[in-house]
Structures are given as C-alpha cells and as structure tokens.
Amino acid sequence: MGNCQSGLTPEDREAMAVTKQIDVQLKQDNEVSKQVVKLLLLGAGDTGKSTILKQMKLIHGIGFSNDERKAFKSAIMINIITSAKTLVKAMCQLKIPFGFDPGQIHDPQSQADNAHKGSCAEGLGRELGGDNTLGVSAMSIMAATLERNPVALAARNLYRKTEDENGKDTKQPACAKVIEACDVTFCFSDDITMPSDVYAAILEFWQDPGVKYCYSRSNEFQLLDACAYYLDNVERIARPDYFPTDQDILSARILTTRVTEINFQVQDIPFKVFDLGGQRSERKKWVPYFDDVKAILFLVAISSYNQVCFEDNCTNRMVESMTLFGSICNHAAFRRTAMVVFMNKIDLFRSKLETCPVSLYFPNFTGLCTYENASDFFSRQFVLLNKFPDKKIYVHYTWATDTNQITKVLSTRQSGPVWAVVKQEEKLKK
Ligand SMILES: Nc1nc2c(ncn2[C@@H]2O[C@H](COP(=O)(O)OP(=O)(O)OP(=O)(O)O)[C@@H](O)[C@H]2O)c(=O)[nH]1
Ligand SMILES: [Mg+2]
C-alpha cells in the first residue's frame, strides 16, 4: 500500500485529497439529512392536506407569490361556477322547487303524507334510472332523507306540481338558466373577470330559499366545501380588481395531482414536508416517498361521516378514511414513524351534528349526539386500528382554514407533529 502511495503523481495525490474531502462532506450531509424531519401529509381526497400545507407556508413565512395568487384566482372562479352549476343540477335531482322555504311549511307531516310515500326508495331509483352521476349509496342517502324528513317530501311534492314531462322545473328562474349555460373558459383568460350577467345570476340564485335548502342537503350529492364561503363573497370576488386574500386561497379546492415539497424549521427542528394527492388514482404515487419518513400527518375529514366518496359515489368517506389509515398506520415501513391524526373540518362537523345524527350512518354510535361524544367516538375508531402496541397515535381536532387554530396546533412544542417527533425520538433512544 505504502509503495503504491509513494508511486503516486502529485495530480493523483490531489485527486485523492478531493475525493476524501467529498466523502467527508457526504458523511456530514448524511448526518444533517438524518436530522431533517421528513413528514408526509397523507389521507383520502378532500380531507384538507393541501390546506394544511398552505397554512405551513403562511405560518413559516413562505407565503404566496403574485404568480401563485393569480393561479388561485383562476381556481377560485372555477370553484364558484362549479358550485353554482352543481346546485342548479341538485335542485332538479333532489326535486326542490325554486322559492321553496322550509320555514313556510306549516304542517310538513301532512304535506308529506299527500306525497305518495311508497315511491320513495324504489321510485327514486326508477326516476334516477340512467343517471349515473349518482351512485347506489348516494341514492340510498337521498331515499333515507325522504323516509325520515317530511320537509324533503313536502319539497318533492311541491316540485311535482311544477314539473314538465321531462321532469324539469318549469318555474326555473332565468338566473339558473344563465348559470347552466355559463362557459368556464373565462377563468383561463389573462384578465379573469367574471362576466357581469353570470355574477348577477349567481347573486340572485344564492339568495333563493330553495337553493339554500338544497345546500343544507349537500351530503346527498358532491359539492365543494368552499361553496358557501365563495358564494357569500361573490360580490367582492367578481370585482375587476379582485386579487385573492389568504383566506380565499385557503378555501380553494384544487385536486392534488403533483407532489409538492416545502422546507421550514420549527424550534431548531428542520422539516421537509410532502403533500401527496389523496384520491384513489393518486395513491399509487405514494410508495416512492415511504423511505426515511419520521412523521406522518394523516388527515381525516371528520365532517364527512354522512358523505360518499367522490371517486365511486358509493363508499362512505369516513369508512374510506379508516381503511386507508389502517393500511398506512400498520405498514411495515412506518413501524417507528411518529403518527399524528388531524380530525379536520370540525367547523363543518359541529354544524352538521345539529341535523344529521351520527347513528344514522354509524349505528354502533349509541351516545348522545354531542360534539364531544361524536368526535371522541371517531377518534377511538382510528386509534383502535393501530396494531403496533408500542406506537402512540396523536390525535388533534382541527379547522384547517382557520390560521389561528392551526398556528397553535403546529407551532406549539407540546402539540402537533413536533411533539410527536420528539416523543418518538426519545422512545427510539431508550
Ligand atoms: N370549512 C372547512 N373547509 C376545509 C377545512 N379543511 C379544508 N377545507 C376545504 O376542503 C377543500 C379540500 O381541501 P384540500 O386541502 O384541497 O384537500 P386535499 O386533502 O389536499 O385533497 P386532495 O388533493 O384531493 O388529496 C378545500 O376547499 C379546503 O378549503 C376545514 O377545516 N374547514
Ligand atoms: Mg391536495
């Protein structure tokens, strides 16, 4: 060896010194990258993963560039038009007449009795026959609503009086027709301003009591959660000089199809966060990201207990989340990974509980349907899925579009992913 070394030219010696230096650097980089917390945002589609990533960008000073805000402007316009069009269609599918005001139905039971009740479940299937925009379970949710809700039956009875032979409301106002005919290409133009007739139509449409009632039954069809926020703010958003605020951006629904990565530091701990698409077709892209994961932030939309999946219009969204969590939590690659569950959309959950009892969808929930009981019930269902006895699941109740609440959960050392990672590291050292 020594002989070999002595036979080296000065260039060889220099090359060896450089190689050694690179090795040292690589080793150091490796040490640093071991300390970086790689965190994956996982969960089913529409549960709020990208919203949490947006909050992380806001909270850790990354924010949004002007180009990003412009891209969100386009997405927000599409969200508004899509929401309005969905509601126009749902008025027809659920058979709710325009102008219908549930508060004006004095004796809903007798109104309902006048409707031929027998037609509910099977009749509904017949009426919807051939319309595959509604799946079997979406239909059964509709049928169940009609069975137990005399107001829904009364609306349907009134609608029948305004129907033509094609089953369409003959009293459909002009604003609904403008929305139906609206072409979304303006959302992709350079100046992206909502046409004035569309704006006026949406404003009038959203004030209709029948439309508001239809919105209250949005678990029976696929509607964006941001619908009410955007339609309430349409006057501001339709102005020619409109530029999206942080809150507008947090409310935007853009289905994730490309992985996004951000880096930031919380109290000396460097984080590298990946946001992955949660819809079924996107989940095949997850596996390549499974190496060296220190923490998983698993998002569940707790408000989705009475909704079906967008992908098949059939599977209950909460059941879908549980199945997915079971496979992630018990995956061999995540044996030692800190696991944090965000039970998200608590704002929507709270208001839903007032009208939609959990036991209708989860008969094994038998307690009083309060926020505390119901949220505790769902958390337990998730924690019980964990098959690793030495692994703790950290559960938080979140409202991802509320920056104050998320700041508290994400930035406090004694909570959120930071806490879970610290505790997991302590356990591994033992
Ligand atoms: N009201 C309310 N809306 C929320 C909350 N969290 C998310 N949203 C909204 O729910 C919609 C879906 O959120 P995303 O963050 O895009 O969902 P995602 O999990 O990234 O969905 P995929 O990309 O399809 O996997 C958006 O319109 C959000 O603004 C919440 O806590 N409350
Ligand atoms: Mg997303």
TrEMBL record:
<dbReference type="GO" id="GO:0001664">
    <property type="term" value="F:G protein-coupled receptor binding"/>
</dbReference>
<dbReference type="InterPro" id="IPR001019">
    <property type="entry name" value="Gprotein_alpha_su"/>
</dbReference>
<keyword id="KW-0547">Nucleotide-binding</keyword>
<dbReference type="GO" id="GO:0031683">
    <property type="term" value="F:G-protein beta/gamma-subunit complex binding"/>
</dbReference>
<keyword id="KW-0460">Magnesium</keyword>
<feature type="binding site">
    <location>
        <begin position="250"/>
        <end position="256"/>
    </location>
    <ligand>
        <name>GTP</name>
    </ligand>
</feature>
<feature type="binding site">
    <location>
        <position position="400"/>
    </location>
    <ligand>
        <name>GTP</name>
    </ligand>
</feature>
<dbReference type="InterPro" id="IPR011025">
    <property type="entry name" value="GproteinA_insert"/>
</dbReference>
<dbReference type="GO" id="GO:0005525">
    <property type="term" value="F:GTP binding"/>
</dbReference>
<feature type="binding site">
    <location>
        <position position="50"/>
    </location>
    <ligand>
        <name>Mg(2+)</name>
    </ligand>
</feature>
<dbReference type="GO" id="GO:0005834">
    <property type="term" value="C:heterotrimeric G-protein complex"/>
</dbReference>
<dbReference type="GO" id="GO:0007188">
    <property type="term" value="P:adenylate cyclase-modulating G protein-coupled receptor signaling pathway"/>
</dbReference>
<feature type="binding site">
    <location>
        <begin position="344"/>
        <end position="347"/>
    </location>
    <ligand>
        <name>GTP</name>
    </ligand>
</feature>
<keyword id="KW-0479">Metal-binding</keyword>
<dbReference type="InterPro" id="IPR027417">
    <property type="entry name" value="P-loop_NTPase"/>
</dbReference>
<keyword id="KW-0342">GTP-binding</keyword>
<dbReference type="GO" id="GO:0046872">
    <property type="term" value="F:metal ion binding"/>
</dbReference>
<feature type="binding site">
    <location>
        <position position="256"/>
    </location>
    <ligand>
        <name>Mg(2+)</name>
    </ligand>
</feature>
<protein>
    <submittedName>
        <fullName>Uncharacterized protein</fullName>
    </submittedName>
</protein>
<feature type="binding site">
    <location>
        <begin position="275"/>
        <end position="279"/>
    </location>
    <ligand>
        <name>GTP</name>
    </ligand>
</feature>
<dbReference type="GO" id="GO:0005737">
    <property type="term" value="C:cytoplasm"/>
</dbReference>
<dbReference type="GO" id="GO:0003924">
    <property type="term" value="F:GTPase activity"/>
</dbReference>
<dbReference type="Pfam" id="PF00503">
    <property type="entry name" value="G-alpha"/>
</dbReference>
<keyword id="KW-0807">Transducer</keyword>
